[in-house]
UniProtKB/TrEMBL annotation:
Keywords: CBS domain, Chloride, Chloride channel, Ion channel, Ion transport, Membrane, Transmembrane, Transmembrane helix, Transport. It is found in: Membrane. One of its GO terms (cellular component) is chloride channel complex. Coiled coil: none annotated. This is H(+)/Cl(-) exchange transporter ClcA.
Length: 604
């Protein structure tokens, strides 16, 4: 079909309001093979998500530059007091006024949409995350931009797939491609972006069409390299060659970063629980969290913003510049001063990040885990030097410390390994990166088998963490399978009325209810059949009805209901509300049919 003919027939495709470029893409979707159109889609989604990442990084960098450039610490104190507080309060106000209080954020938001919403992401998230995180992090929030960039990219990919009526499988693939491009543009690390998609977003999903992920990552990374200035990029050039004699350092650092990652996760959970328990409005919680964050930034300026400049200072040996920009400059700078300063920064970073995110700001744990890991690595290195060890690979310990902590916090060792390797051109550091990341990851898994993001969703019954087919089952909704037209009969009705239902109806199961519509029992055709050809004048419905094997409630998830069906060996069960009022019957076959249809959509 020529494009002109397609355009003339656009009403046939429901594209009355489509823009010209959308018409072209719809036409290409009809002309190209599935693989060819997915490749084109990967490029378009990758470029768009990459541009979003570049825009956000540039915006925040310029805000930071405006606030802190060539300003002495004494003058910065006012900035540290005002701006972090203002960032969280402004973000919360915008969420409440412009986005109607909808502030689902972080990697968990993407996992929720994949598992619970058939990979359909609201179009609002294509720009809401950029606005919120730019304000939060740009004004000093102690969080990262990578998670908001990933959510933005996933929304771009999902909405692109919805526009061109792609299947669930293709929608999920392009959602992941958008997130991949966002991460690749944030770090100029395409392989790390791909690892992020496979390791975190697509756990348990097997894709034969992974080319769109690759091209999206390449597009995002290229745009980042072309458009971003060198000082914005996450880049580390100074490092020492790998020496196998330094393996003991890396083994110990793996344990240290694993334990620190667990500390970081526990503090985050406790702060989240504390803030949720406050009997305050959302705006007042934002004011409280902003005040705590401002205080921490005044006392320890490295907690301001993402903190990548501080980590670069570690690798360049400029720790004295960091201390001179804090109250610690009024102490005589000695080794113990530096060690105490870094210990406090490590311990308080978890609090600063948690108060930023959970009190109302928008950001993620990517940058905080990298910052904290670099600080832990540098602290470990100078302690070793202080103990008299020679030739300590300081820069390498900073780099692998970043990978170790990120691995333990996000449960993503491969993403951490490739991210640091690509960002430092340190491919010869693969061995220490693998050692530290895997040790930290195993320690984190020993404390908790699944990551905090997944655990939160799993505890809510919104995602299953082992098999993707059960995640598909979680995307089904119980109310869709309840037969609202089930036949009911009152318990005091004459038996003849029941037999009339059997004669004229098309149901094989009946609910027995009282005058208040509360369920009293059930009857099936098998229960009624023995009385059809006998004298039933002396029989009542109450005499022959039976109790159901189990009751189903609307809040039960499809997976739970299937387990109940298996335990009771039943095929139909009644659904009642909390007052035992009958709602309808639900059948095992209807749930299985719904699951098969969804699986077919995913497999096509």
């Amino acid at each position: 079909m020529s494009f002109l003919k397609f355009k003339r027939d656009f009403q046939k495709y429901g594209l009355e309001k489509a823009r010209s470029y959308e018409l072209i893409l719809h036409w290409l979707n009809n002309r190209l093979t599935r693989s060819q159109f997915l490749l084109l889609s990967g490029i378009l989604v990758g470029c768009t998500a990459g541009m979003a990442g570049v825009l956000l990084k540039t915006l925040v960098h310029n805000i930071h530059y405006f606030i802190t450039h060539k300003v002495h610490f004494e003058d910065q104190i006012l900035f540290y007091i005002v701006f972090p507080f203002l960032g969280i309060v402004l973000t919360t106000s915008i969420v409440l006024t412009l986005f109607k209080g909808q502030d689902r954020k972080g990697i968990g938001a993407i996992l929720y949409e994949i598992a619970q919403n058939s990979s359909v992401v609201s179009s609002v998230k294509m720009y809401s995350q950029i606005i919120q995180s730019a304000i939060t992090v740009g004004l000093g929030g102690s969080a990262g931009l990578e998670s908001p960039i990933a959510v933005t990219g996933s929304a771009i990919g999902s909405n692109y797939a919805q526009t061109y009526r792609l299947t669930y499988k293709e929608r999920t693939l392009l959602l992941a491609a958008g997130a991949t491009a966002g991460i690749a543009s944030a770090f100029n690390a395409p392989i790390a972006g791909i690892m992020f998609a496979f390791e975190i977003l697509l756990t348990g999903v097997v894709f034969t069409d992974f080319i769109p992920l690759v091209v999206a990552a390449v597009c995002g990374s290229l745009l980042s390299r072309i458009l971003l200035q060198e000082d914005i990029l996450f880049r580390f050039y100074t490092r020492e060659p790998f020496n196998y004699k330094n393996l003991p350092y890396y083994l110990i650092l793996g344990i240290v970063t694993g334990l620190y990652a667990r500390y970081f996760v526990v503090i985050s959970q406790k702060v989240e629980h504390f803030i949720k328990g406050l009997q305050l409005s959302r705006l007042r919680k934002a004011m409280f969290g902003g005040a705590v964050l401002s205080l921490l930034c005044v006392l320890f300026p490295p907690l301001f913003g993402e903190g990548y400049d501080t980590v670069k200072a570690f690798t360049n040996g400029d720790i004295h510049l960091i201390i001179e920009n804090s109250f610690f400059k009024y102490f005589k700078i000695e080794e113990w001063t530096t060690i105490i300063f870094l210990i406090l920064v490590c311990l308080l970073k978890a609090f600063a990040t948690s108060f930023t995110i959970f009190s109302g700001g928008n950001g993620g744990n990517f940058a905080p885990s990298l910052f904290a890991g670099g600080t832990v690595g540098y602290l470990f290195a100078i302690i070793c030097q202080h103990l008299g060890f020679n030739d300590v690979p300081v820069t390498n310990l900073v780099l692998v410390g970043m990978a170790g902590t990120m691995s333990g916090v996000l449960y993503a060792p491969l993403t951490a390994i490739f991210l640091i390797a690509e960002s430092s051109f340190g491919y010869d550091l693969f061995i220490p990166l693998m050692i530290v990341s895997i040790i930290a990851y195993l320690i984190a898994k020993w404390f908790s088998p699944i990551s905090p993001e997944l655990k939160f969703l799993a505890d809510q019954g919104k995602i299953f963490t082992h098999r993707h087919d059960k995640n598909l089952l979680f995307s089904l909704h119980t109310e869709d399978f309840i037969d609202k037209y089930s036949q009911t009969i009152y318990e005091d009705a004459p038996i003849e009325e029941l037999f009339e239902f059997v004669k004229n109806g098309n149901k094989n199961i009946f609910a027995i209810i009282d005058n208040t519509k509360k369920l009293k029992g059930i009857l099936t055709l098998d229960d009624i059949r023995p009385y059809l050809f006998t004298d039933y004048s002396s029989i009542s419905i109450i005499q022959i009805m039976k109790n159901p094997p189990a009751l189903i409630y609307p809040e039960n998830k499809p997976l739970e209901i299937l387990q109940i069906f298996d335990e009771t060996m039943a095929w139909n069960l009644p659904v009642v509300n909390s007052n035992n009022e009958f709602i309808g019957f639900i059948s095992k076959s209807s749930i299985l049919t719904g699951y098969r249809e969804l699986l077919k959509e995913y497999s096509d």
